[in-house]
Amino acid sequence: MTTGYVQNIGSNSLYSAKDIQAYIDKRLSETPQTEKGGIHRVEKGENLWTIAAKYLGKSKPTNAEIQDFMYKIAKLNNKETIEDFNTLDINDTLYIPEVSANESAAAKNKATPSNSRKNHAEAKQEPKLSNAEKLEKAIRQLNELTAPDSPYATYTQKTLTKYNKLQAVPPEVFEAHGHAGFNYWTEQFKNNKNLITEKSFSVNPLKPSAVVFRIINNDGTRISLYASINNDGTLKNVAFDAPGFDVKNISFDYTVGKDGKIVMAAPSGFGKLEIGQISSEEYNAMVKAIEPRIKEALAKAY
Question: Among residues 30, 92, 107, 117, which is most buried (max CB within 10 A)?
Fold first, then answer.
């Protein structure tokens, strides 16, 4: 069983697999060889980025620091390909590089499974956040993790930087954004009477197959939700964008079906990632809120 990112690089990606592999080769060639400082056992949901951030021994490491340490881990463990970077086997062991003296104690403590469990149990629980607060936090994290390195970056530089940094965003950040985005749409169906609707049709026979709902903000930005429907007009699944951050400009970022699994379009290529789970209560709340709106849209003449 694997954990982390599993991505298929498509021919229409901004970068080809060859380009990405060339970048990995370049970074690894520039990364100094380090000594083994500890051992980490891979857990579900982890990837090289999250592991690097964990062992840096800093409360708020920069993206550059995390990326540098990630390549040190990769080099020490002979992780040299796109597949190596995007997939890790649960329960695999990774060597963690030595860190500076003032960081070594933190790293060694984190590398001991028993200590990790103890620290987790003793960690102060975060206050319970509302869905709006969860969404705001996820948007802030996504924007910070993909921000350009220079405030003077051009549009093209910003686009390329975002693409590169999306590969290293921890899955739990995407999960938080998609999960809160799902519940955001539920609230919109309950309370927003100004949603723009449009029917989508299948052919042979010609009949409605989905309803598209859109929100256009005051600044001109928009987000959409595509509700696929069964023959009787009930909800089949939803594909949607969450507010505040667009992972992929050419497709919906997240999909949720009756099983409640949150699936997202991979940040690169055309792969799919299963990143989380909507509870049955949350899914049923969506169904209860959206199906009257679907019925209303289907009844319109257009």
Answer: 107
